[in-house]
Amino acid sequence: MTPSAPALGTRLRRAFFSSPFNALLTLIGLWIVIMVLPGLLDWALFSATFQADTANECRQNDGACWAFIAEKHRLILFGLYPFDEQWRPLLASLLLILGLVLSCRRSFWNRRLLIVWGVLLPASAILMWGGILGLSYVENTLWGGLPLTLMLSTFGIAFAFPLGVLLALGRRSHLPIIRALSVTYIELIRGVPLISVLFMSSVMLPLFLPEGWGIDKLLRAQIAIILFSAAYVAETVRGGLQSVDRGQVEGAASLGMGYWQTMRLVVLPQALRAVVGPLVGLFIGLFKDTSLVVIIGLFDLTQAAKASLTDVSWAGFSIEAYLFVACIYFAFCYAMSRYSQTLESTPQVNHVKV
Amino acid sequence: MSKFDAAASTPLIQFQDVNKWYGRFHALKDITLDIHQGERVVLCGPSGSGKSTLLRCINGLEAYERGQLFVNQQLLDGNLKTLDAIRRDVSMVFQHFNLFPHLSVLENLTLGPIHVLRQPREQAEVQAHAMLERVHIAEHAHKRPAQLSGGQQQRVAIARSLCMQPHIMLFDEPTSALDPEMVKEVLDVMIELAQTGITMVCVTHEMGFARQVADRVVFLDEGEIVEQNTPETFFDQPRHPRAQQFISQILH
Amino acid sequence: MPSPSVKRRSAFSWHQPRVRALVYQVLTLGLVLAGVAWLLDNTLANLATRRIASGFGFLQQEAGFAIGETPIPYEAHHSYGRAILVGILNTLRVSAIGIVLATVLGLIIGLLRLSPNGLLRGIARCYVEVFRNTPLLLQLFLWYALITDRLPAPRQAIEALPGIFLSNRGLALPTPADPMALTWAGAGLLLGVALLLIHAHHRRRAAAARALPGLLKAAVLIGLPVVGLVFGGERLGWSIPEQRGFGFSGGVLLSPEFATLLIGLVSYTSAFIAEIVRAGIQAVPAGQWEAASSIGLSRWKTYRLVVLPQALRVMVPPMTSQYLNLIKNSSLAVAIGYPDLVSVINTTLNQTGQAIEGVALIMAAYLTISLSISLLMNAYNRRIQLDGARP
Prior knowledge:
The structure holds three protein chains of three kinds. Chain A is built from 15 helices and no strands. Chain A is mainly α. The longest helix of chain A has 28 residues, at 318-345. Chain B has one domain (39-53, 84-250): P-loop containing nucleotide triphosphate hydrolases (Rossmann fold, 3-Layer(aba) Sandwich). Chain B has helices spanning 51-58, 80-89, 105-115, 121-134, 150-163, 180-194, 207-213, 231-236, 241-250, and strands at residues 13-22, 25-35, 40-44, 66-71, 74-75, 90-93, 168-172, 199-203, 216-221, 224-229. In chain B, strand 1 and strand 2 (25-35) form a beta hairpin. In chain B, helix 3 packs across helix 4 (121-134), helix 3 runs parallel beside helix 5 (150-163) and helix 5 (150-163) packs parallel to helix 6. Chain B starts with 12 loop residues before the first strand and ends with a helix. The relative contact order of chain B is 0.17. Chain C has two domains: 80-165 and 256-384, MetI-like fold (Orthogonal Bundle), CATH 1.10.3720.10; 175-239, no CATH class. Chain C is built from twelve helices and eight strands. Chain C has helices at residues 17-49, 80-113, 118-132, 136-150, 181-205, 214-236, 256-282, 286-294, 299-329, 333-336, 341-352, 355-384, and strands spanning 158-161, 164-167, 170-173, 175-176, 238-239, 242-244, 247-249, 252-254. In chain C, a hairpin with a 2-residue loop joins strand 2 (164-167) and strand 3. The radius of gyration of chain C is 28 Å and the shape is globular. The two termini of chain C are 52 Å apart. Chains in contact: A-B, A-C, B-C.
């Protein structure tokens, strides 16, 4: 006689009420859900105003004022970019997102990736700046919102990556001076908050450079983000380098390959594949960290939210604005973290059984 | 006496009073050894006797502190150009294969010829296919090493070494990491190789192989060459007490 | 013996590894030094043209600005040095409390993530994903908006418990009227430390003595000072907040800025700690669970006696970096107006124009704090490793 699956009642009882303690926790959990969820849903959906022409219409209801978002979404998404040209930051953002998606596909984990980014990064920059190819020039003080966040993070990781790899190799070098310089840089940067590096870049860089070498604010922030991320990339890549078996280097040496050949053809491909997950995590962190440029006055997605609140006729909807922006960040970051989870669960064809 | 007389030709590999230390530990003591072209030499001895260390000195994977080591009449003294030249002519097969897991079998074989010997890709691939045929593994050319068994991987490693067209092949316990049923397929390949006249130096415990193929067996113990002889003499009538003890232990 | 037919190359050829190493290092060092020299040159020139002072003399000048939260007495006429000290104390204050709360909350949520109860698992999962995938700065803005916009004014404050008021001006708590009560708290702390040391000594002597569970030790270390504080309060009188005018008098007021920063840091960091706890527990081999259940240990006992001690070894290094992250993230205080060290030094820097000294001070402060925490946690990490196991 085949045993039948337990009845639904039994299953529920076992899952949620198996012991007095478990029952108590379930009740607390239910209480939390009942306290939070209906109120939240009511505010966000049922009592919310989705369509309104003025703020007062919205204020008459208790719920969220999503009409505010409808009114302000272009500002939040694209900042102060000229209204008619906003297809350009949109396209630039899509190109960068395309680059990110392609970077995730295994078939691109080779030279092709360099070509992809080599085309997409300049293309997005040209779209944003204009001035050539018949596009009107838009100076970067008008850039803002999502495209700026995307640009800061992708350009950031693109340039931080080679620098980080060099630092990681330097940290493992047998040459004492090179190792000392690498370690000092990495530990110094990792010991201080991003804010201080941003301050350093925005406030100190003008002092470090000769008179007349004006660097605009955006570039200063970008340099700070690159220098900061490079240290974290270095530590992650170092973990990958440590995971490559010593025998690989010996195998390459026995074929007559030199240091840089061995690194380029044998060690780094394996090391980088080993730490793709943590590298994605790093990028997620970088994406969130770009919000700090608010503090030095740049107009990223977070600042755009704040800016939308300054309109006097639509005042007092800060929570809606922040939630909207939070959802955008969440969408990107959650997608990327799910992707990195699939990476971890896919069986690696690269690990040889020894 | 080996059929390779000292007077007949200059030895391909010459150890002259080579000493090596690992910190305080004296790993190689006054090693003096000549290996001639076409000779098949087996190094054996208990673990820790220094046989792998000796082997790895030949292609510069280990450095020595005292004495002189000549390979192809070039002195190994740390000079990187000499080392590069020697490594192009000496190939090594490792106990743990050391295949490159991120490349296919074919790419493993063509990596050295393309990037070190500067051969064009087509030529390297033709040669790679030929070598894969020789080790009887041609059908797996496009697989990754992880998809192959241990014996297959080791044969790929041998093919990879052959693609560099070496004059000297070094084997560092090539079958020690294999499951017993795969040892024979690798040894068969090595026996075929031995018949081509290439100079081979093997560290191995496979005494059957030594008997069949070796011109000379060199027995090391505690960093010294204790005895060297033809295989028949060495296995049947070992002279030195330590050699006798070793033989009795492995031929139980 | 055949003689080598090779020419002895000169000892200084490019092909000698030592020569190459020397050249690479000299070149790199030279480049770095040249770069630094050029930057220095420019900096000195720029400082001169802009007539910016150098050196740390400004630390003794009068600050001229007020600070909203002052753990030690401070007024506008005090020096910059004192102001910066107040900033550092504020940073340490929010970081220390934040680390403790984040660890506790992270532990709870991490355990919930592994609960067989699907509802609890789901709640924990939502918590972790929501707080990990949004920027901390944005979360701070949201909390600040919630506290300042949604909480009532002090006159209509919510009295959660007698003497504890919640309003958009912050959280008002009763405190002992006399600062001497702190000495009672200190006495409690000393008593707790002494008890634990005696216990450790006793364990060394009598090998069979069982160790107290870590939870009990923590409870003693935190509980006794609290008991001391309450005792001191009872003896010396309490200062209870009362609604007066547009605010409160008496007691201590935890500002919205402090509350925002604390809630933000704790909720954000606890999400990461929860994942570390989950990974650490999952790293303990399944065989351990099986062995424990085969000798009849309950689920909770298994956690406490078998799994958590082993999981701890895996958790400590990433936990350390989360603590360091929390401390570094407290620098976001500058965006919501909490006077932490970055915020104070930023004001100083703007007033004196001495940007380099200011940023150097910020970095030095954080490096010192980071290094101390790292050293402490690494010492703890070494202690809990299994003898002979590689960390």
